[in-house]
């Protein structure tokens, strides 16, 4: 376990028959950190969360919190509390009784329990709702009650299993902001499961991207977006363009690549996780906002020399108005790529277009 690890998952394995739900997972979290487990359905993120909570027994590996290994420790004796996707509120109990349920299980003295319940009502802006029942609450209010019920037991680690997935889009945006602000106030170590990448990138200190039971990358949101380590992460996080090419040569910091239609592209070799060899088939990853439209070449033309090195010709086949930006669809080397522009005034929908991208903004992955 690393010196700063507060939650440590080492070699976690979970099998169902011949299928691995989680395969040799190693993950460490610092005290007070907000970590998101992110990935598509069936990637193993919820199984991982339930192994931390003790609801699922691992077939291998270990879970430790604050230096204590938890093998064989039942859920109610672990220093964790979980907020479920459906909130699991008791319909016959008032908000106050729902929040205090865990305190009764812990046999907290009545007066102390009352103070803690009232503190949670105030913390989560539920003071006026204490005597209501769950069917008298909105979805957002029910989510806050479920959160209060988890927090009132004063866990060392808060676990959240897609708690916002049943809410409408505007409510999700508002509540994820509230959750993040609450986390900053409390400094509580939090593990949050979601399939929504925007949710993960906007809330987490670090994100663990999973696929088919395996950890693909564990990094800050900024690094995940700008420095994905493989094709899966590049394609899963945000909108991306993937163009097949062939590695022509490597010289110094320059990686020379040839698109399938013969156009040359230069990438920065220092930015790559794995360098290809000359002749290797590769995929070039480029974010839509990093592709720039170039004006026609002419005498005295100025611009970023790094961008001018990469002149990529294509044919415009469509355009979408998305409010704050305009998204242009361009055919390049028999592939469609997206180009996002935030300042589009005075730019018509031309048939032919020349694009450029800085070499440092291109990621190169094996494949075709």
Helical segment count: 9
Beta-strand content bin: 25-35%
| Structural Rg | 25 Å
Mean pLDDT across every amino acid position: 90
Distance between the termini: 38 Å
Which structural class do the helices and strands define? alpha+beta
Poorly predicted runs of 5 or more residues: none
Query: Helix amount, in percent?
Result: 10-25%
Spatially, the strands of the biggest sheet line up as 6-7-8-3-9-10
Secondary-structure element pattern, one letter each: EEEHEEEHHHEHEHEEHHEEEEEHEEEEE
Shape label? elongated
Number of strands: 20
Tell me the major beta sheet: 6 strands, mixed
Observed structural traits:
9 helices, 368 residues
What can you tell me about this protein's structure?
This protein is 24% helix and 35% strand. Helix 2 (95-105) crosses helix 3 (110-123), helix 2 runs parallel beside helix 4 and helix 3 (110-123) packs across helix 4. A hairpin with a 4-residue loop joins strand 16 and strand 17 (326-332). It has helices at 45-53, 95-105, 110-123, 139-151, 169-186, 197-203, 221-226, 231-236, 305-308, and strands spanning 5-16, 19-30, 34-38, 60-65, 68-69, 80-83, 157-161, 189-194, 206-211, 214-219, 241-251, 254-259, 264-268, 281-286, 292-294, 312-321, 326-332, 335-341, 352-356, 363-366. The protein has nine helices and 20 strands. With 368 residues, it is an alpha+beta fold.
């Amino acid at each position: 376990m690393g010196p700063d690890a507060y939650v440590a998952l080492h070699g976690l394995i979970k099998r169902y028959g011949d299928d691995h739900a989680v395969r040799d997972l190693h993950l460490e979290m610092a005290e007070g950190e907000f970590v998101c487990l992110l990935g598509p359905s069936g990637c193993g993120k919820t199984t991982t969360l339930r192994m931390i909570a003790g609801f699922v027994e691992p077939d291998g590996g270990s879970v430790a919190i604050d230096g204590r290994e938890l093998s064989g420790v039942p859920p109610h004796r672990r220093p964790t509390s979980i907020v479920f996707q459906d909130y699991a509120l008791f319909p016959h109990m008032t908000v106050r009784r729902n929040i205090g349920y865990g305190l009764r299980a812990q046999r907290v003295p009545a007066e102390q329990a009352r103070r803690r319940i009232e503190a949670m009502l105030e913390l989560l802006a539920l003071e006026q709702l204490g005597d209501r029942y769950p069917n008298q609450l909105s979805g957002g209010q029910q989510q806050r009650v479920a959160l209060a019920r988890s927090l009132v037991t004063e866990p060392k680690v808060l676990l959240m299993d897609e708690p916002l997935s049943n809410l409408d889009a505007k409510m999700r945006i508002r509540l994820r902001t509230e959750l993040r602000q609450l986390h900053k106030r409390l400094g509580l170590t939090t593990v949050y499961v979601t399939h929504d990448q925007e949710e993960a990138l906007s809330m987490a200190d670090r994100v663990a991207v999973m696929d088919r039971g395996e950890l693909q990358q564990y990094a800050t949101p900024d690094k995940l977006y700008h420095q994905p380590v493989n094709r899966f992460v590049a394609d899963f996080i945000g909108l991306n363009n993937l163009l097949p090419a062939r590695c022509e040569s490597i010289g110094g910091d320059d990686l020379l690549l040839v698109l399938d239609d013969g156009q040359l592209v230069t990438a920065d070799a220092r930015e790559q996780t794995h360098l290809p060899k000359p002749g290797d088939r590769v995929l070039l990853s480029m974010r839509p906002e990093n592709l720039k439209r170039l004006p026609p070449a002419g005498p005295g033309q100025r611009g970023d020399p790094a961008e001018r090195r990469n002149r990529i010709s294509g044919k415009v086949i469509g355009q979408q108005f998305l409010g704050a930006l305009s998204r242009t669809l361009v055919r390049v080397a028999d592939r469609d790529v997206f180009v996002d522009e935030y300042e589009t005034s005075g730019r018509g929908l031309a048939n032919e277009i020349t694009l450029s991208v800085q070499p440092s903004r291109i990621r190169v992955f094996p494949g075709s």
